[in-house]
Amino acid sequence: MKKTFEVSDKLFELYHRVHRLVNESMTEEGVSLARSKFLFFLSKLGPCRSTDIACALNFAPRTVTEAIDGLERDRLVMRKPDPEDRRAKIVSITETGRAVLQAAEHPRKQLIEEIFSALDDEQLDQLYDIVSKLVEKTDDIRKRKEEAEAAEVAGAHQS
């Protein structure tokens, strides 16, 4: 059991170190990793409501609103009235936002390549397979928890 936790701790340590380095390199180019997630989402899926962004990125609506406020202030995104719901706004990435995102993408990729150059192709394949199994297991656990919660709610409604 000790080895499981040691490996888990190493994975978390790696994640945090890579995250920090990638964030620093992207921030030097004008957009943090967190802000780039919003820009990347909008560049791929196109204009959408902030509630769609919150749902897709699993963020609280308030967090998304604050992030969009900052991105709009920096002219990286813009809001327009939703033609189908006058209370809502449609958010889209601007050309400036696309340029900033593209500029930050190069150092991110370069850094990831440098980090993973410590592994040969066979090790990369093995790591991919191992991480894929762990992702699949976490999905199974999440699904089981959601099913248990749904059954609990259904049982409460029948009482």
UniProtKB/TrEMBL annotation:
Annotated signal peptide: none
Protein name: MarR family transcriptional regulator
Top-level taxon in the UniProt lineage: Bacteria
Domain HTH marR-type span(s) in chain numbering: 8-136
GO biological process terms, semicolon-separated: response to stress
GO MF annotation list: DNA-binding transcription factor activity
SUPFAM superfamilies membership: Winged helix' DNA-binding domain (SSF46785)
Pfam family, one: MarR
